[in-house]
Amino acid sequence: MPDTHTAPKPAPKSEGRVARRQRRNRAALIAAAREIMAEKGVDAATMLEIAERADVGAGTVYNYFKSKDELAVAVLESLMHELAMRIETVTDTFGDPAQVYAFGIRTVLDTATTDPRWKQMLPRSEVIADALFRTMGPFAIRDLNNAVAAGRFRVTDPALVWRLTCHAIIGMSLAITEGRQEADSKVPIIARLLCMAGIDGEGADELAARSLPDLPPAPVERN
Amino acid sequence: MPDTHTAPKPAPKSEGRVARRQRRNRAALIAAAREIMAEKGVDAATMLEIAERADVGAGTVYNYFKSKDELAVAVLESLMHELAMRIETVTDTFGDPAQVYAFGIRTVLDTATTDPRWKQMLPRSEVIADALFRTMGPFAIRDLNNAVAAGRFRVTDPALVWRLTCHAIIGMSLAITEGRQEADSKVPIIARLLCMAGIDGEGADELAARSLPDLPPAPVERN
DNA sequence: GCAATAAAATGAATGTTCGTCAACTTTGAG
DNA sequence: CTCAAAGTTGACGAACATTCATTTTATTGC
């Protein structure tokens, strides 16, 4: 009698213990991966060590992330989301929309070359650039559009400009951290990237040279 | 009697068998790696298979290249050097020095997104971008300087602009081959990259839209 | 409560690959 | 011809991502 009256898909009444544990595990895994990857770099961080620090079995990681790369992407996205939030709290006081965009890319460049959690990810340039494009894209594209509306920039395809900028920022960050590019060339780098947004050379130089307000401190790591 | 009259460093009279074999081995290894990496990608190409196709023992590869990465870089450099040579044969007929630069970056973008030997390397963005910077840098920087002298571009640090351009080109090439970026956005990509060289938007658009002469065919693979 | 069932966690085993090394071969000067 | 230095070899060790059969945990109908 296969026609028993068992509910085939029991409506998930409210959040059960499973869902709570899953959220804890996912967060713990990302936090552990973040720490270990920041300490030793993406490649040197082994899945076993990450699993141990998150206090789960080695195989469990694969219930949450299909591969090590996918886990690394999740880590990156969490870092970037956090940075985007911190940037937001500062830029909404700016009068010049072009400066909002300039501050954003300048901050990403500074963070990528300074924060060890970012630095250790840089060798995976293509992954990090793509994550940057996706995660901070909505903010950056909005800022570009604002600056265009204000007559400061000239851009027909903001997504294209943003993608070009992402690859350039990450590539230059890696070059700087590896010493192939002088660290004090950050201002000219920003100026040239602003040129891609359709501002002339003098305007770009001036914008890139403006002094920057401080970011709010990063939220403390939760244990 | 340590003072025997043995020449401590016997002047290499002429090229001996060792030197000849070494040149053959190095060339064979690069050729084999080129083929296999083009077929299967850098990661999927195993050192053993490369050694076998080059007809040397597995350990011998490490007499010539410290690591798999170093071998991959050598392959890239050979590809890029070849492309630079082919570009040279075309551009020296151009009247406008800005067009020489534009043609160069356009050709690199086209080749990277089209030639399977390049395409398979793209996932190693950071390596390929750096190789591009080094290998084609002398040409690109010379072209930039010429265009500046002709009043077409405005650049204070050509190496910086070239490095930014390298990372952007390679990143966009990968995005195109993976379908994350439409392939028909190549012209606007080039236009935006030209903006970084200090030309205004209209000039960049016009330069990027010019039709391109064909390259001479690639030299045939030697067996 | 209590089975019955489904979902998730586990960790030992697997398969792969890079790079090393001790033994072996080739080279070429004396 | 002799022999030491240079070059080659392929088997091997270590490391690591991923898999999967088994065990543990949670949920639900009764």
UniProtKB/TrEMBL annotation, chains A, B:
Q: Report the leader peptide range.
A: none
Instruction: List the molecular function annotations (GO) for this entry.
Output: DNA-binding transcription factor activity; transcription cis-regulatory region binding
DNA-binding among keywords: yes
Q: Which UniProt keywords apply?
A: DNA-binding
Keyword DNA-binding applies:
yes
| DNA-binding region(s), chain positions | 46-65
Chain residue ranges for the region called Disordered? 1-22
Q: Which residue intervals define the domain HTH tetR-type in the entry?
A: 23-83
**What PROSITE patterns does this protein's entry cite?**
HTH_TETR_1, HTH_TETR_2
Name by which UniProt lists this protein = TetR family transcriptional regulator
- The scientific name of the source species is Celeribacter persicus
| Organismal lineage | Bacteria, Pseudomonadati, Pseudomonadota, Alphaproteobacteria, Rhodobacterales
